[in-house]
Amino acid sequence: MTYPIDEKPSRRQLLGIALAAGSGLLLPKLATAQNTAPAATLRLGHIGPARKPTTATGWALAQGHLQRELAPLGYSGVSTYAFANGPDLNEAFLSGAIDIGIYGDTPAVVARAKGLDGSLIGVDEIGMNVWLLSPRGGVKSVRELEGKVVGVALGSYMHRYLLGALKEAGILKTTKVVHMLPRDGEPALEKGSVAAFAAPIDTGPLLASRGYPVIDEARNHPHLRGSSVIVAASAALKRSPTLGAAILRARRAALQDIRKDPERYYAFHAEVSGFPLEVVKASHPISQFPDQAYPQESLQLLEGVKSFLLEEKLIRNDIDLSQWRLAGL
Question: Radius of gyration over alpha carbons of the chain, in Å?
Fold first, then answer.
């Protein structure tokens, strides 16, 4: 049994709890940002556990590239907000609490299909893996999950992978999929309360290093890999029409730094995220950070996301992804 990605019944109930528990009591901070923060502060949301973004855009922020590009547009700084998952970040977009969101392709496409007023201004990472892990001594294949319970963060790029993998194994309708945030995956595996857990980047290789068997990965199904996209609210683009181009320039400058000294970048990523260095390297190959705003591989993956969501009736409205992209990038 699965739950519609855009109609999870408990999403709004979970939002306050998830933000408070997973983002350091973030909800009051967002309310403050929305009501009292100066208009010149760019409000950037991303998926945690780290309080700051950690990929190429995160390095652009840490090294000042982003601030330098934003200054001519009238921005005096950047405020960052970490979210437990993509659906929670979508809620912040809908409430007008953030200007930019960096998050998984699946919740971003869902939001676009539901009419979220924003534009795709870039791709932060392409081809993200998912690790499907079982308890020690548990099942050894996807096919063995039939009739069992599998945990995943609903509405995430991992959710889309999991549904696709279950469908390919012919057990989509006979496997129960339950909502489970990454921080809850290890306790569930340890207790055996789920037969498997679909873990995202960072969490997946960390759990594997602790002895939880990997029974499948998204890289075994290239069309089910994820992307991290950068979306800007239309209100922010109306205020600053060249915002997308500024962010793209900042990312390119950051990528030049990263490629010159990848070890320095990885040390930063590990420190900010709290994940071991080898886990970060396994999760974020630098080859996954694109220079272009809209690399062809990512566009193909996004089309695959949309087609899958429509086919499974997880979204109702077809969308033209070319109209989502910002002209001129």
Answer: 19
CA 143/CA 175 separation, integer angstroms: 10
Name the nearest CA neighbour of 317 among 129, 113, 138.
113
| Spatial CA neighbour of 212 closest among 242, 185, 172 | 185
Cβ atoms within 10 Å, residue 310: 16
Give the phi and the psi of residue 8 in degrees, each rounded to 5.
-60, 120
Nearest-CA neighbor of 227 among 87, 119, 127? Answer: 127
Q: Give the pLDDT confidence of 126-174 residue by residue, as tens digits.
A: 999 999 999 999 999 999 999 999 999 998 999 999 999 999 999 999 9
How distant is the alpha carbon of residue 252 from its chain centre?
20
DSSP assignment of 294-312 equals S-HHHHHHHHHHHHHHHHT
Instruction: Report how far residue 54's alpha carbon sits from residue 158's, in angstroms, rounded to the nearest whole number.
Output: 19
Dihedral-angle region of residue 192 (phi above 0 means left; psi in -120 to 50 means alpha; beta otherwise): left
